[in-house]
Amino acid sequence: MTPLVVVPALLLGVAAIPARAATTLTVAADGSATYRTVQAAVNAVPAGNTSRVTITVKAGTYRESVVIPADKPYITLEGLGSSAAATVIVNNKPASTAGTTGSATVYVQAKEFYGKNLTFSNDYDEAANGSSQALALALYGDRARLGNVRVTADQDTLLIYNSARAYVWSSYIEGTVDFIYGNGSAVFHACKIYEKRSTGGYLTAANTPASQTYGFLIYKSTFTGATDNVTYLGRPWGAAGQVTVRESNLSATIKVAQPWTDMSGNSWKNARFYEYRNTGAGATLNSNRAQLTDAQAANYTPQKYLAGTDGWNPAG
């Protein structure tokens, strides 16, 4: 599952906006805005920008691949529709032909990215076309935020990599296999997570380095699925993978007896998988489900996961 850094060629012939231009760019596929594609608007952001640039995207479907390069930080993508489902950025490239990150519909290399009120999707159908990673969103830039978004695909929906930190809240994520994964640190707060495959799968695949205290925290969120008792909370892509599920509602889709499993020779028993005060039909206490004590839980909060060395606190 090692991601390959594949950067699609950027569109040519789009002039960059002057440094003193307005910090809001507009996109509409119907031609009613300055740009017809999201990538064209990204291309127009000056390299090395030091302040936020908001790219507003009119409701509609934008079938394209988008790359936000590392030298274009502080970009916001904001859907203008009545809901996140009204503005969709989608493609259908599988990793089998494009490479892992090359398959991502949106690949964010820059820091301080903010996505809100839109959908990131990869509609490659693994059931019809064969199993392959096909990412909707790859976050490689530090201090990313996603609010009120939908991230949908089949296998490997959302990648958080390059030791990036991400805060995701009030959002919806769906997939089949390992669809929240990577070596970064991320908090999913008040999110809805859905296993779409009737035979179940693995919600997370953390590759947290042993030297890194925090991986993924899923906090006050809701887990549902197409079928009961078939879905794993996760498996360790790396031997020291770290995932905490706390104060969340686990539906009957979760495998109650053993919600964690092995991966690629890495034992779930040696990984850092924890739960804390979960509820619902898929939540229980047994020897296969390590629980944090109240004292331990004080160190597994959104603030702890995201603080890093710079004290980042997007959760307020």
TrEMBL record:
It comes from the Bacteria. Residues 25-308 form the Pectinesterase catalytic domain. Pfam families: Pectinesterase (PF01095). Gene3D superfamilies: Single-stranded right-handed beta-helix, Pectin lyase-like. The lineage of its organism: Bacteria, Bacillati, Actinomycetota, Actinomycetes, Micromonosporales. GO terms for molecular function: pectinesterase activity. Residues 1-21 form the signal peptide. Belongs to the pectinesterase family. One of its GO terms (cellular component) is cell outer membrane. This is Pectinesterase. GO terms for biological process: cell wall modification. Keywords: Aspartyl esterase, Hydrolase, Signal.
